[in-house]
Design brief:
Number of domains: 2
CATH topology of the largest domain: D-Maltodextrin-Binding Protein, domain 2
Number of strands: 15
CATH class of the largest domain: Alpha Beta
Largest sheet: 9 strands, mixed
Structural class: alpha+beta
Shape: elongated
Order of helices and strands: HEEEHEHEEEHEHHEEHEHEEEEHHH
CATH superfamily of the largest domain: Periplasmic binding protein-like II
Length: 282
């Protein structure tokens, strides 16, 4: 009987060890866009694909991607339904989810050709009133500010030419950042006003030398309401999953140098990157 008890105890201990090992090595399901470059695609070519793999290294877990196609419902149809555990690249403090410590902060930028030497540092710059074409994504802060400076209407037809994709029944419209940067590279537009992380890769790769100028975060509409241009980015889990959130925060802190290396290689303008991983979330 004593021998049997010892055997049972040994088997139970082995079971606990195996369970712990399986929990440690189980796959972490990460939701990502199947075709939203430079962030991610189903070939693993985006910088968020790379960040997810880095996260897996930090948590000692294999990464399994769950891809979404429709940007309008990516949280509702993936994370909320339990199809994945983590979403990379959400706004810090997004009320729909629990967000991690921000792992970078970036800004909207003006993209211009170096040889043009345009004096454009903010939305008050005189050159923005005289250039012929400004590439931008409708619905972004750039549209709000183009309305504020009186340029939106005369650029409307041009902006419609830049549409890269329309979903069935025109449910949503997609603008390809590579195309918008290419407008400046080719000389078809003098300026592009874009989100820095989406533009960086294509600015770096351009055969025509381009300049990215960070737009100050001091912009307002005509009614005085602030128009934000600087934002922090986090990872997200479902609300209530505090254990996984704590693990993410530890991994972000531990992997901050590697995270920065990936983002800098992309050409992404980084703001206060040395402190951002330790900032408080809102």
């Amino acid at each position: 009987m004593l021998l049997k008890r010892k055997l049972l105890t040994t088997l139970c201990c082995l079971g606990l060890v195996v369970s712990a090992a399986n929990a440690k090595n189980s796959a972490l399901k990460v939701c990502a866009a199947e075709d939203e470059m430079p962030y991610s695609n189903n070939k693993g070519e985006g910088f968020e694909n790379k960040l997810a793999q880095l996260l897996g290294d930090g948590l000692h877990k294999k990464i399994s991607f769950v891809y979404w196609a429709d940007p309008r419902y990516y949280l509702r149809d993936t994370l909320d339904k339990g199809l994945c555990d983590v979403v990379i690249g959400v706004d810090t403090g997004d009320p729909r989810v629990s967000t991690s410590l921000p792992y970078y902060r970036s800004a909207y930028v003006f993209v211009t050709r170096q040889n043009d030497r345009l004096a454009i540092n903010n939305w008050d710059s005189a050159a923005l009133r005289t250039v012929q074409r400004i590439a931008f994504v409708p619905g972004s802060p750039a549209e709000v500010m183009l309305r504020a400076i009186g340029r939106y209407n005369d650029l409307f037809n041009y902006s419609q030419e830049l549409v890269g994709y329309k979903s069935k029944r025109n449910q949503y419209v997609k603008y390809d950042t590579a195309k918008l940067v290419g407008e400046v590279s080719s000389g078809h537009a003098e300026v592009a006003a874009l989100w820095g992380p989406s533009a960086g890769r294509y600015v770096v790769a351009s055969a025509t030398p381009l300049t990215m100028t960070v737009i100050p975060d001091t912009n307002s509409r005509a009614d005085g309401a602030k128009v934000g241009h600087h934002y922090s980015t986090s990872m997200a889990v479902r609300k209530g999953n505090e254990a996984l959130l704590a693990q993410l925060n530890q991994a972000i802190k531990a992997k901050q140098p590697e995270i920065r290396h990936i983002l800098e290689a992309e050409g992404i303008p980084l703001l206060d990157v040395e402190n951002v991983a330790f900032a408080e979330t809102h």
